[in-house]
Amino acid sequence: MIIALIMPYLLPLHITRTFTITFIYAILALSWNIASGYAGQLNLGVAFMFGIGGYTSAITSATFGFPVWFSIVIGSLLGMISGIIPGLISLRLQRSYLGLATLALPMILSAIIVNALPREIAGGMEGILAPPLLGVRDIVLEYYVALVSLLLSSIFVWRIASSKMGLFFQIIREDEDVAKASGINTHLYKVLAFLLTGLLAGFSGSLYVHVVRTVSPVVTSFLISFLPIIWCAIGGAGTVYGPIIGTILLDVPTSLARGYIGAFAEYVPYALLLLVVFIPRGEFGVGRLLVLRLKGIKLEHMR
Amino acid sequence: MKLLEVEGLTKRFGGVVALKGVSFSIREGEIVGLIGPNGAGKTTLARVILKLLSPDSGRILFEDEDITHLKPWEVVKRGICGTFQIPKPIKALPIISSVMAAALSKYGFKGSKIEEVERKALKALELVGLSYFARAYPFMLTYADLKRLEIARALATEPKLLILDEPFAGLTLTEIQELSEAIKALCRGSSRRMSIIVIEHKLSELMRIVDRVIVLNFGEVIADGKPEEVVKDKRVIEAYLGGEEV
Prior knowledge:
Chain A is mainly α. Helices cover 74% and strands 1% of the residues of chain A. Chain A has helices spanning 2-10, 13-38, 46-62, 68-82, 84-92, 95-116, 119-122, 139-161, 164-174, 176-181, 186-212, 222-235, 241-261, 268-278, 286-295, and strands spanning 128-129, 214-215. By secondary structure, chain B is α/β, with parallel strands linked by helices. Chain B has helices spanning 42-49, 72-78, 95-104, 114-127, 143-156, 173-189, 203-209, 227-230, 234-241; strands at residues 2-13, 16-27, 31-35, 57-62, 65-66, 80-82, 161-165, 195-200, 212-217, 220-225. Chain B has a six-stranded mixed sheet with strand order 6-7-8-3-9-10, sandwiched between helices. Chain B has a four-stranded antiparallel sheet with strand order 2-1-4-5, with helices on one face. In chain B, helix 3 crosses helix 4, helix 3 (95-104) runs parallel beside helix 5 and helix 4 (114-127) crosses helix 5.
């Protein structure tokens, strides 16, 4: 924690900036973690909510001239509302079928942005510029904004996880029939999980576009959907600290390596994608493993 | 007073007719055994009453209210809860958490005090003799204890009608005796008169705890009455022993 506070004064600016982006990505990982890590609804299209949040925030601030903080609020809210779509799909489809359906959502979004929205508003393939997060360009201050946002988001997720809702999410993840037989309104809680995921993903998308100061259909790419899954798998899905640990552990080295191995770094995540095949729910999550070890529980028993 | 009334319930799975116009009723405070050979439709009937399956035709009345088209969680709120034949513990959570979730689901969105819910969950675990294991994980329990956990989860929803799907299957004789004592105590001991449906095919133990037996065969009710009468019924013997003269 203290390290995170003084870091900008110890490290060169470009590394500080890497951490800013990483923290924003960590919020995205936290958001994926709600519907998929806690409630167990496979979501391969979190870029949909991320993109909606990002585009909304960029358009409201750049085109309509609203203040940045206000457009971030609008972006998060619209992200939340967009969560209804995968939420409703999750009532009909399960597991990999739900995954496939959610996978299509970011593609549809990017097609809409490029083809259906007027170029003056959404900028087509090239995208549009978004005003900087704090009105002026200040890498250190942006770092702190991202850090505080990440802290608030993790407190938010922690509150959900330790509430009645969090308990219901986990029971729905483990066995939907048991959840129903225990009197849990599975339809309501699955949609709620996606709404909360949308809220945080939209928030993270809004922050992102104001930090990189541009938005283009890249924000709906596969990587934005898949990277959070990898981060959660490494750090431990279904926990609060897991996604944060996973993101920092993976994203910082990949981003920094880009300076040395160039475009090749872009392929690293694809290799990591293989991990998801073997550990879909992050059973081997670093954080989770530590906690279980402390409690003296062997992993095999939890299956 | 009639608690549950089932009228002409039919359920098909493709070409298989699992339930053929099943009708019966359960009175308040009664323990009813639901028996029948393998594939008779016992579990299907339970799942239809719990609304985990939808019937093709027929009506289910609970306390004179038509519950045929309710969702499973609404049925639980009305006061019907069941256990699964094969225990389905929530492996990732301590057992008290899954019982607490069942207790919590009764309340609306805001819910009540967490301490009160925890007390209720502990009471449910105590009723089945598991309160000592409240903080344990399911993998630490024996199979018999997992079956008790199933019952505790159902009890935590404070049901008026409890449906136990083969509570004795896979247990040793001693465990069966312990469990049947516990079930008996549940019904007789509670201040509210709870009705219980026990689905079984281990007859000997069942006959000692039930007030009434309903026999299903090929999706039809073939007998309904006191245990000692039912075991003498010709059609029941036929169903169990395969149609030969005995």
